[in-house]
Specification:
Cytochrome P450; about 10% strand; Cyt_P450_sf; binds protoporphyrin IX containing FE; heme; Cytochrome p450; monooxygenase
């Protein structure tokens, strides 16, 4: 590491030179950031990436400043967010007035109380989808974990967002489109300084993916606007909403909101559940305890909403999975007003990167930080009783941009895990190790093949 004198008159900032930063970031981005943060013990760092020199912010005090205390100085603008604008438009995934209004409209739809009203339907959908896996057992075929998790999650999210207005076929069409968008965006994120009039790899795939999404979503929005109803799904609510000027939302505004929430909700949860199967394979003791809880609470399944409060260990496992693999791993901000973080002066116009992946693995705040140990989240444990720094664990972000989907996550994820494990035994067929790859949500770099068999109970009927 070297010292950057230009950051004066505040404290000198350590910097990671290009020749060290770039190869590591290209190989394993999340791991590289966590490694740099660990070496610096959470001090502010500057990544020297040629024309682009973002600050890496990982100490919980500093994260809190960026995300909450001085959030207006650190906005979701700039080079990292621009590529996303092409997908999300100006909506809840932006900042300023558009974000504020969008959040006002969407927030009431994601409260724990609202989620409770749809939990029954969510559990029915999960059960229906999980039963379809009998076919994998019959045929002995393996399947791709991320795709299958995305299918289940999208099916749930389609209900929440679109009511019955999106057919299952259309739902299946947009999953690969979102996946392609997530991967192809990476080139723009890696080369944020490249002007948009220049085509770079990924652009064509990205634009095609956005077009496929629009081909599905716009006709549904038009129909919903032409035939308004009183339903509580998000598209119906958006059709009844007004913007910051009191005007009814346009079809573009509704499209932007739906696409943003779709992306924020289905891919993130699907990726957490993909990492979960890998972790369970590597930790048979945890897997056995989880299975025992599910056998006791859910029995033959499928899981129903009343089971959720009793799935205590399941929740701990999910929390620990989110610590090691927070799907929203990359939270960039543009500094819009001169700021000071950890004694370092940061000028307006700079970029800062916040990453729960790195903070949640800092040895200063976590014992055995790389070890998968759900016990950390046991109810009543010291760490849980307020001693842990609020921003040492923030898989759902924090401050005014905090994730709206956390209550939904803690309903849908336990239902999915418990319904699957009440019926099947899972095994990972791809040999590890599994590094993190470059994508908008934290994904394993290589595909994860899963095999399923029925668990111990008699499912012979299903095989007929
Ligand atoms: C494991 C699952 C999830 C994770 C790890 C996750 C993570 C995050 C994070 C870190 C943010 C903050 C982004 C930032 O500060 O720039 C965020 C924002 C958001 N999330 Fe989630 N999320 C998850 C699931 C969901 C679900 C299920 C939904 C919706 C149903 C959702 C909707 C949103 C929305 C709308 C925002 C933007 C909030 C705002 O900026 O005002 N998320 N999420």
């Amino acid at each position: 590491m070297s010292m950057d004198v230009h950051a004066r008159p505040g404290r000198r900032v350590r910097s990671i030179p290009l020749h060290r930063a770039l190869p590591k970031l290209l190989r394993e981005p999340a791991g590289a950031l966590a490694g740099f943060a660990r070496e610096a013990r959470g001090e502010v760092l500057r990544l020297e990436l040629g024309p682009f020199r973002p600050y890496l912010i990982t100490h919980p005090d500093h994260v809190q400043k960026v995300m909450r205390l001085e959030w207006t100085k650190h906005q979701r603008l700039g080079m990292f967010w621009r590529p996303l604008e092409r997908l999300f438009g100006h909506s809840i995934m932006s900042d300023g007035e558009h974000w504020q209004n969008s959040r006002k409209v969407l927030q009431p739809l994601f409260t724990a109380r609202y989620v409770a009203t749809i939990a029954e339907e969510v559990s029915r959908r999960v059960a229906g989808r999980v039963e379809e896996w009998d076919e994998y057992v019959r045929s002995g075929r393996d399947f791709d974990a991320a795709t299958e998790m995305s299918r289940i999650l999208s099916y749930i999210v389609n209900r929440v967002l679109f009511g019955d207005k999106l057919s299952r076929e259309d739902g299946e069409r947009i999953i690969p489109a979102f996946e392609q968008a997530s991967y192809s965006l990476v080139y723009r994120i890696l080369m944020p300084f490249m002007p948009y009039f220049m085509r770079i790899p990924g652009d064509r795939t990205f634009l095609k993916a956005v077009q496929s999404i629009d081909d599905v979503v716009f006709p549904i929005v038009r129909k919903a606007m032409a035939e308004p109803d009183d339903n509580l799904d998000i598209i119906s609510v958006l059709c009844r909403s007004v913007d910051e000027n009191g005007e009814k939302l346009t079809e573009k505004q509704i499209r932007d909101a739906l696409v943003s929430v779709y992306a924020a909700s289905s891919e993130t949860t699907a990726m957490v559940l993909t990492w979960l199967w890998l972790l369970l394979e590597q930790h048979p003791d945890v897997a056995a305890r989880l299975q025992a809880e599910i056998d006791e609470v859910v029995g033959d399944g499928p899981a129903v909403p009343e089971d959720i409060p009793r799935l205590v260990y399941t929740r701990m496992v999910l929390q620990e999975t989110l610590r090691l693999y927070p799907a929203g791993w990359f939270l960039p901000r543009r500094v819009v007003e001169d700021a000071e973080i950890g004694g370092v002066r940061i000028k307006a116009g700079s970029s800062v990167l916040v990453t729960p992946y790195a903070t949640q693995r800092l040895g200063e705040f976590w014992e055995r930080p790389d070890e998968f140990d759900p016990e950390r989240f046991a109810p009543g444990k010291a760490e849980n009783e307020g001693r842990r720094h609020r921003y040492s664990y923030f898989p759902f972000g924090g401050g005014p941009h905090r994730c709206l989907g956390e209550p939904l996550f803690y309903v849908e994820a336990p239902l999915v895990v418990a319904s699957i494990l009440s019926r099947f035994r899972m095994s990972v067929r791809t040999p590890g190790p599994f590094d993190t790859g470059w994508a908008a949500s934290l994904r394993p770099r290589k595909k994860v093949a899963l095999g399923v068999s029925f668990n111990g109970r008699d499912r012979s009927e299903a095989l007929r």
